[in-house]
Write a structure and sequence with these properties.
Layout (H helix, E strand, L loop, with lengths): L3 H7 L7 H10 L5 H11 L7 H28 L11 H13 L7 H24 L3 H18 L3 H35 L2 H11 L6 H18 L3 H18 L4 H15 L7 H10 L3 H27 L2
Helix pairs in contact: 1-5, 2-4, 3-11, 3-12, 4-14, 6-7, 7-8, 8-13, 9-10, 10-11, 10-12, 10-14, 11-12, 12-14
InterPro entries: C4_dicarb_anaerob_car-like (IPR018385), DASS-Related_Transporters (IPR051679)
Membrane topology: Multi-pass membrane protein
Protein name: C4-dicarboxylate anaerobic carrier
Length: 318
């Protein structure tokens, strides 16, 4: 994702639109072993079953996201002063765009082929490690860090230049990392003090007293709120699904609906909550203040919530 920012400047599109354009793709992922896979395993339904219906919802979310961003981009192109970022880091944006546009790119050489090969090998190694050894973010991040150092040296930056580039990149996401760190401290207190268990219990206790249709809505909204306290998708699945599955059985609701309620509630809120490391890191690199991001994303997020709620209710009666 970060790599697309200079590409947007190269085609003379505000690089700050990069997060806007792709953020919906993550919201309703079709297959994800760390969220959908875990939730379905706990619910004891076939792994990745229901992918056809999830694909339909994915396409609806993607289409509305594309139209929303195109409308915003068209408006800003005609009236730049209407951009939410019009008065934010004007000189910095101009300098970065000019630097990217003035860059002279070399023709494809052997070293570029080697770099692409190393990138592909790193991805393959990570995938193998995930399935063979149960690797997660820590191991994958270490591999990508090693890859970054190696390709920097091969690419001609040298040792000093490579580490200077790494430090420059780290500087861009430092603020986002600090925000996530402070938010994580809150989560640690809630978890260590067993407070999160109380929150989950009381948020789910009232669901089994509601009619089926309202219960589905309540499941979704509960997952939406809990994601602030448990930003890890796999962690949220393991915490909430053992509770949601018996409730869905009690109400006669398909377990697949409970899985969808978790998936959509977890994913959509990741575009808003400050405890999401990926969101805050992306905003930091793109230079988007969090308050400006909220002003942009709340409308499309509300649309996505309505789409997902409608999808949940329809699926319940299929």
């Amino acid at each position: 994702m970060f790599g697309h920012i200079p590409e947007f400047s190269k085609i003379r599109l505000n690089s700050r639109k990069a997060p806007y354009i792709v953020v919906g793709c993550f919201c309703v992922y079709i297959i994800n072993p760390f969220t959908v896979g875990i939730a379905q395993s706990i619910a004891e339904v076939p792994l990745f079953s229901g992918w056809g219906y999830r694909t339909l919802i994915y396409l609806l979310v993607l289409l509305t996201g594309i139209l929303y961003v195109m409308h915003y981009a068209k408006k800003v192109k005609a009236h730049p002063e209407k951009s939410l970022l019009y008065d934010v880091n004007v000189e910095e944006r101009r300098t970065m765009s000019d630097d990217v546009l003035d860059t002279k790119f070399d023709s494809f050489r052997k070293r570029h082929a080697v770099i692409l090969t190393i990138l592909a090998a790193t991805i393959i190694i990570n995938v193998y490690g995930i399935f063979k050894y149960g690797w997660f973010l820590t191991q994958m991040s270490a591999n990508f860090l090693i890859m970054g150092i190696v390709v920097g040296i091969i690419g001609g930056l040298g040792i000093n230049g490579t580490f200077d580039a790494l430090l420059e990149g780290m500087k861009d996401i430092l603020f986002g990392a600090m925000i996530v760190g402070f938010a994580k401290a809150i989560v640690v207190v809630l978890t260590s003090g067993k407070i999160i268990d109380t929150i989950v219990f009381h948020m789910t206790d009232f669901i089994d007293h509601l009619p089926a249709a309202f219960s589905v809505v309540a499941m979704f909204l509960t997952q939406l709120v809990l994601n602030f306290f448990i930003p890890s998708g796999s962690g949220q699945a393991m915490t909430t699904m053992p509770i949601m599955v018996p409730i869905s059985d009690l109400l006669g609701i398909n377990r697949q609906v409970a899985v969808l309620a978790f998936q959509y509630g977890d994913a959509i809120s990741n575009n808003i909550i400050p405890t999401s490391a990926s969101l805050m890191g992306l905003l930091a690199v793109a230079g988007i203040p969090y308050n400006k991001w909220l002003k942009f994303v709340w409308k499309i997020s509300a649309i996505w919530v309505l789409i997902c709620l409608g999808g949940l209710i329809v699926y319940m009666y299929l």
